[in-house]
Amino acid sequence: MKRSVIYIGASLIIAAVILSFSEGKLSSSFNKKNLAKAEYQTGDIIFQSSKTGQGHAIQLATGSKYSHVGLILMVKGQPMVFEAVQPVQLIDLKDFTKRGDGHFVVTRLKGADTVLTDKVKEKMQAQLATHLNKSYDIHFDWSDEKMYCSELVWKVYKVAAGLEVGELKPLKEYDLSHPVVKETMEARYGDNIPWDEPMISPGEIFESPLFEVVKKG
After folding, report:
1. Least confident of 32-46, 90-104, 110-124
2. Range 2-28+37-216 has CATH code 3.40.1790.10
3. Around Cβ 15, how many Cβ atoms within 10 Å?
4. What average pLDDT does this structure show over 53-59?
5. Secondary structure of the chain in the HEC alphabet?
6. CA 148/CA 85 separation, integer angstroms
7. What is the distance in angstroms between the CA of the first residue and the CA of the last residue of the chain?
8. In the predicted structure, residue 67 carries a pLDDT above the cut 70
9. Looking at residues 69-85, what average pLDDT do you find?
């Protein structure tokens, strides 16, 4: 019951933000005058390492210390994180970081003040709303039926801004040699491993030359 209330509340927040865009009533968080001064901005991407077994397997397979990623959304001047967990949700940034290993990093699109226009942000908001409460995709499929964390961030940027924020790679191109990775894959796929399924990892997004680090915590 409590979860349902949380999900409904998150949905209402998203709807309210989208409405504010449609009416042209942007908060000071989205005002271009304040953009350069803001510690966080809508469109920033936050990375951290999760404490789960899956997180460790992702680190091993991708060669990155980051196993989880979310998209920052400013709501009434406060930074929230839109992330694909179970289910896709909107969460306070402080609560997001508490679930990690104590370290996080935030990157920002280079030239965000000109690229992430009000129109782009409106499209971004609309995309986020369409994915809210979707189930987490433990099989990392590239369909829109379910979402995993880096897939959500990649697709929102692609649709809203026309940008590919990392290189898609088939599963077979990741390092799948470690026993932990093999064990995780066997548990998820059995003998039906989708070797050619396109995937995007948090590490690939972090390494994107389109972004620069603006904060570490």
Report:
1. 32-46
2. no
3. 13
4. 89
5. CHHHHHHHHHHHHHHHHHHHHHCCCCCHHHCHHHHCCCCCCCCCEEEEEECCHHHHHHHHHHCCCCCEEEEEEEECCEEEEEEECCCEEEEEHHHHHHCEEEEEEEEEECCHHHHCCHHHHHHHHHHHHHHCCCCECCCCCCCCCCECHHHHHHHHHHHHHCCCCCCCEEHHHCCCCCHHHHHHHHHHHCCCCCCCCEECCHHHHHCCCCEEEEEEC
6. 7
7. 33
8. yes
9. 93
- Residue 29 is predicted with a pLDDT of 36
- Token duo for residue 204: 């690939």
pLDDT at 173 over 90: yes
Single-letter residue type at 109: L
Nearest to 67, CA basis, from 149, 175, 138, 167: 149
Compute the distance between CA of residue 41 and CA of residue 27 in angstroms, rounded to an integer: 12
